[in-house]
Design goal:
- The chain is an all-beta fold.
- It has no helices and 23 strands.
- Strands 2, 3, 5, 6, 8, 9, 11, 13, 15, 17, 18, 20, 21 and 23 form a 14-stranded parallel sheet that branches. A six-stranded parallel sheet has the order 10-12-14-16-19-22, with no helix packed on it. A three-stranded parallel sheet has the order 1-4-7, with no helix packed on it.
- The radius of gyration is 16 Å and the shape is globular.
Length: 196
Amino acid sequence: AFVQTNNITILNNLWVQNGTFSLNNFIGNVKGDIAVTSTNGSIAQSGTFNLTATTGPRTIQLSGSNLNNVIINAPGITYAAQDNISIYGDVTLTAGTFDGNGKYVNLGNTGGKTILISAAGTYKINAGGTMALAAAAAVSVAGTIEIVGSAGSIASVTKTTGGSSYSFNVTGTIKAQYYLFEYMAASGIIINSSAT
């Protein structure tokens, strides 16, 4: 295993081919892709990944690993999921785009976590894709969220397996077509007067 003893900056890609990479509750600044490239590799659920690419597009492939907290602060850059993804802590999309790419994206799995899409951020749930939210997760959209499926393959926002309800508040932009929202809190999907 590779275990960090302080914050780290990786100027290119983080590829884990063998063994376990752990941030050990520190911050990992990554300028490139994140990929677990074989069944012999893994990333420990610890610390915060701060994804700050300045060139792209970029990819995230976890091969069954679970991340803790994730911040994307990459103006003009898209990060696309290459497989199903689990992020158990908080997610902050400060700038740039996260593209679920038709995959199952499990967020806030430890419960009561925040998924924040800031004004310069865009989150995409495409045809066949799912945003699955854990119990009491709170989604706040000041930027843009796109839940756009197709006639034969909807895009979904739902609860995680064993989860309950979540809150969903939009002050920015929501684009939705061929979609499903289910298991939200009694307040429903709140689209504020400032939203479009």
